[in-house]
Amino acid sequence: MSAGTITPYRSAQPAGHDGFPQLLRAEWIKFRSVRGWIIGVVVAGLLMLAVGLLGVQASIACSSGPHAPVKHGAACVTPVPIGPGGEPVSDSFYFVRQPLTGNGSITAQVTSLTGVQQSAAPSGPNTAQTQAGPHVLQPWSKAGIIIKQSTKQGSAYAAMMVTGGNGVRMQYDYTQDIAGIPGKVSAVHPRWLRLTRSGDTITGYDSADGFHWTRVGSADLAGLPSTVQVGLFATSPMHVYESSSFGSGNYNGVNTIATGVFDHVGVSGQHGGAWAGAAVGGSQGLGPNGPGDSYQQAGGSFTVTGSGDIAPVTAGPGSSVGPSGTIEQHLVGTFAGLIAVVVIATMFITAEYRRGMIRLTLAATPRRGRVLAAKAVVIGAVTFVLGLIAAIIAVLIGTRLSANQGIYVFPVSWQTEARVLLGTAAVLAVGAVLALAVGTILRRSAAAITVVIAGVVLTYILAMASLVPLPVAEWLLRVTPAAGFAIQQSLPRWPQVTGVYGLPQYYPLSPWAGFAVLCGYAVVAMGLAVLLLRRRDA
Amino acid sequence: MEATIEVTGLRKRFGPTLALDGMTFTVDPGQVTGFVGPNGAGKSTTMRVVLGLDAAEQGTALIGGQRYQDLRHPLSHVGSLLDAGALQPSRSARNHLLWLAHSQGLNARRVDEVVGQAGLQSAIKRRAGGYSLGMRQRLGIAAALLGDPPILMMDEPFNGMDPEGIVWMRGFLRSLAAEGRAVLVSSHLMGELQDTADHLVVVGRGKVIADTSVADLISAASGDRVAVRTTARTEAMTVLTHAGATVAATGPDTLTISGLTAQRVVTLLGDGAVPFSEVSAHRATLEEAYMELTRDAVEFRAAADSTGAAR
């Protein structure tokens, strides 16, 4: 009709940009303008702290000193030596030594390595029973030659050794381990070992016949003094076994003793002449005059007997450090914080569906994938920042509380601590993104929150609180999103240490692998959410 | 870009219900187009399809020749108000507008401008959840105006408004159209659009029943009928029927006659000495015209409701 005579409206308003930064700003305004969500985020942080720090109070375990006041419980913890890399170490062995100044080398033939085990019967140290036999030799019982900075525990070293079950090894500075000739040592199959020092570098060799030598590896022990201790050693770690039925989590440990027989011992260079025996780091329940920890010299042949280990310390049952904790124990409240985070992140999208506001959102931004991406960035960033702050506070306060309770907290490198703290924040952030995606898929708060909490938090609690058998727990922490909590593991597994690598200190997956599982769930859920958001009517 | 909405052959099914069945119409600039039909006729669905929220199985909906999904900063092309309740209750009205503004690259100053236009200044800091439905409609209008668009599309904006609000809304819609904007306003009550809409798209059962100017529709519905008030009903009917008219008794002393002009009726009754007190040209209300057009659609809806398949 009259449309032909009408002048269509032209806005005088300049068109704004509608790029991703504008979208992020819009979603941030949405988030910050709902007071309940801000409160929820704060509650998540407080839950993290409360649950994490209550755990410290509950774990009073100064068992080795019943009379020690709890407040000063540190008195009942024996000091733990720290290795050159900063990690806590075991450094207990019998050492037949002499000083060596400047460059030089030590060579020895090992003809035998045998073990005995202290009786598991609860008897006093003076009545310690021992039983012999090849079956009590531990896989990582060891005897060999060593060049060590000093007899001080935790000092730098490099060693060539035969082991109970892992052939010849070169090990140095506690954490490093290189394989040499495989197989067991015997009089028929002796092993020749050699270490040479050249400046700070110590090179290890092995040989089956004393003529044909193979270089195993070399250690750069920076700052090694001119005069070092060189000699023969023997040691054997505690045997830890599950004391009752499968999966019960009850462990007992008994001391074991290894004896190595050496021949053709030779030291070259400027060395100190006479051999002297010493038990470095005392001994594991056996006095220096007991059946272990001694040496005999007959002509060129040495028999050295020792107990203990030269290796990084592991946490968990059988740990040599007594009541101990890890920095991540103060972060056990992460799951509680995650519950609140999941609720908020889900609501961030399901509230829009509930009110029909999603239509306004998608009318304003028809590129729907971007809307979800912006929401994910906002909720992820908010929860990451929250998680990081809460994690830092929890570890700072928790470490102090633990020390007051007499609990030894394993020191870790700053890189590891940063990974644990940032990883905790990332678990919350990725968990939030997962919840957002599931909320988008299901479009209903209750259903989405239930699914995500069951998948991430419930599985974590089942596994960590030993509510399911250990194999089930480990399976849960491999295949469910709860695997992501592995990023909090601060202590590594050491292949050269037989330990009880179980929950809660050791996850079945490595930190990054576990985190990747969680991220995988989030990525798949986000992909499905974007697909459905694009396809479905709003 | 042309400020038009062109809807062509939209077809969409929700389960067993055919929501849109070849919906076709055009909304032109400079006038208020009323989009009327009973509940369930497909008005809201059509609007959602225009906004790219719902996908039609067939047909196209274009904004000045472009699909909505392809528009940059779409709120500067089309402002829409689909559901005044679509907001987070605990968020303040101002923040509600602020996020929407920022999503389009607009700023807080523009928010203040539309708040003024919608008459919400005094309540803007309050939680939107505390708003009455009428205030939420004003908030929705403010949101629709953010991008200063040449096209506005509103679904039932009169819902929940008090009489004063309805008067304001009518004037506001007319002023928007007078600026040269295309304004599409849906309603299931034709009376709300009286004195507001210039053009009507009447829909039922998912398709257009009538696409006409308001003036044409009323005159078509009025026909050339004449109302007569008389105490001698029987005599009047005899005389007029004899002259070839169709006569219907619409009350104890009123008749409606079609087929004769008012002047001819007066002459015939005078010649036949039939007493009468009033003869007037019958003018249908918009409501009546609409009821007549949509009778079939309403029956359909009643049937659909009874099987529980209404949408």
How would you explain this protein's 3D organization?
The complex is a heterodimer of chains A (538) and B (311). With 538 residues, chain A is of the alpha+beta class. Chain A has two domains: 226 residues; 231 residues, Jelly Rolls (Sandwich), CATH 2.60.120. The longest helix of chain A is centred in the C-terminal third of the chain and has 37 residues. Chain A is elongated. The two termini of chain A are 35 Å apart. About 5% of the residues of chain A have low confidence. Helix content of chain B is 36%, strand content 25%. The chains are: A alpha+beta (538), B alpha/beta (311). Chains A and B meet through helix 1, helix 3 and helix 4 of A and helix 2 of B.
The fraction of residues assigned to DSSP E strands of chain A is: 15-25%
Biggest interface goes to: A-B, 44 and 55 residues
Principal-axis shape of chain B: elongated
> By helix and strand content of chain A, what is the structural category?
alpha+beta
Topology order of chain A in helix (H) and strand (E) letters: HHEEEEEEEEEEEEEEEEEEEHHHEHHHH
Number of strands of chain B: 13
Average residue-wise pLDDT of chain B = 87
What percent strand of chain B? 25-35%
Relative helix content of chain B: 25-40%
Q: So what's the CATH class of the largest domain in chain A?
A: Mainly Beta
Average per-residue pLDDT of chain A, rounded, comes to 85
Helix residue percentage of chain A: 25-40%
Q: What is the compact description of this entry?
A:
The complex is a heterodimer of chains A (538) and B (311). Chain A is of the alpha+beta class and 538 residues long.
Provide the descriptors you would attach to this structure in a database record.
heterodimer, A: 538 residues, alpha+beta, 2 domains, 14-stranded antiparallel beta sheet, two-stranded antiparallel ribbon, 9 helices, 35% helix, B: 311 residues, alpha/beta, six-stranded mixed beta sheet, four-stranded antiparallel beta sheet, 10 helices, elongated
